[in-house]
Amino acid sequence: MAIQQLIQILDQKVQQLYQAHLSKREEKIFAKFDRTLFSENGQNVSFYLKEINQTLDRIKTLESNDLNHYNFLAERLLAQCSVLSEALTRKNTHLTVPQTTTKQTIQKSQHSIQKSQHSIHKLPPRERLKKYYEALERLNKLYQQHKDLAQAEKNNDEKIRYTQLAESYKKRQQKCQDAIDLLEEYLVFKEELENRENTENK
């Protein structure tokens, strides 16, 4: 891949990340990041977006004939995007729903998602990807369940509540999908890099 093409792809990924989380730029992230990726923990989203942009700027201004230099920084940038997206996906809104049989089932599903997302970040990338797909499937079901409840509910206040809950799950669906996309791209990049290194070592 040509260097300019690589830079263009990375630039697009960073812009997508900015657009996806621009409204949350003042939110604090309490996840503990690897210090090789971010300089500090406990900062707001805009701080981490700024550091990601700094990595991108380093790639753009790098003057080197060694492709490994570009590969190293590109890998770091993709890892930064991936872990930030994962951290934002793990941020859960604590929502309450009335205690009926159907709604208790929904609560259990929600608790299952919260519990699994809490431990997902400790897993290797490929196992983490599998868990993301499982979480996405559960979020899809929760969204549909709340949407159905909103349509069936006769009380207007409850209808509004279920509609809002459905929308919140829809947003979390998108965040989960974004995390999946980033992680898949990161794994593809890692595989290409390993294949290139293996070819060069033969």
Automatic annotation (TrEMBL):
Pfam families hit by this protein = PriC
What InterPro entries does its record include?
PriC, PriC_sf
Per the record, the coiled-coil ranges are 129-156
Keywords of the record: Coiled coil
Protein name (record): Primosomal replication protein N
